[in-house]
Design goal:
The protein is mainly α. The chain has 5 helices and 4 strands; from the N terminus they run ααααββαββ. The chain has helices at residues 3-19, 23-51, 59-150, 162-167, 182-185; strands at residues 173-174, 177-178, 188-189, 199-201. Strands 1-2 form a two-stranded antiparallel ribbon. It has a two-stranded antiparallel ribbon with strand order 3-4. Strand 1 and strand 2 form a beta hairpin. The longest helix is centred in the middle third of the chain and has 92 residues, at 59-150. It is rod-shaped and about 130 Å long. The two termini are 79 Å apart. The relative contact order is 0.07.
């Protein structure tokens, strides 16, 4: 890597500490720095060999020693730059992680608040409507059972319960299993808690 390339890399490194770019950019910069450091190590080896060559004397030896010193200094700067970039990378990743967590938190809170508002608006009246509906269904089914068992008109077919008609079912049994009945299985907690009336349906449930 030529000196202009090293200078450009150093400028980008210095800028990264000011601008604090996204962590992938810093990770890429560290990779580039590793490559530059490897090239610098190779250069140091070549310069050291020339600087220690006893056949090179005078100005040539002094020039090689100066070049070796500068290359070693440059390599040390690269090592320190890498250390600090790695610290920056860790800090950036943590910042990004916290930013994502905050965004997820804010999004979840907004959905929560919207649903809470909708529940408060919809459930009280809906639950009362459903409770009143199943209460009437049960009363109708009780009347149907009495008619079917004791007061069925001559030649009439037994009446089918409300839920079977509504759900287009032949019975509440499907082979070895039973089909859940809405009026029997449904539980509707009261929206406003009352220790003496915990459920709107079934009545008296605890």
């Amino acid at each position: 890597m030529s000196n202009p390339d090293v200078e450009k890399l150093e400028a980008r490194i210095a800028q990264s500490f000011v601008l604090r770019p996204p962590s992938p950019e810093v990770a890429t910069l560290i990779d580039e720095l590793d490559v530059a450091a490897q090239h610098m190590e190779e250069r140091i080896g070549q310069v050291r060999e020339r600087a220690l060559n006893p056949t090179i004397i005078g100005e040539g030896a002094r020039s090689a020693r100066t070049e070796l010193s500068e290359a070693t200094f440059q390599h040390d700067r690269m090592k320190e730059a890498k250390r600090r970039l790695q610290e920056l990378l860790i800090a950036l990743k943590e910042t990004e992680k916290q930013a994502k967590r905050q965004a997820d938190f804010d999004a979840a809170r907004k959905v929560r608040d919207d649903l809470a508002k909708e529940l408060a608006e919809v459930y009280p009246s809906m639950s009362k409507t459903l409770a009143f509906l199943v209460c009437r269904i049960n009363a109708c089914d009780d009347a149907i059972e009495r008619i079917n068992s004791r007061a069925l008109p001559k030649g009439a077919t037994a009446l089918v319960p409300v839920e079977l008609v509504a759900r287009n079912l032949r019975s509440f049994y499907d082979g070895p299993t039973s089909i859940p009945r809405i009026a029997t299985e449904m539980r509707l907690p009261g929206f406003t808690f009352d220790p003496h009336a915990r459920y709107l349906w079934p009545k008296g449930a605890t």
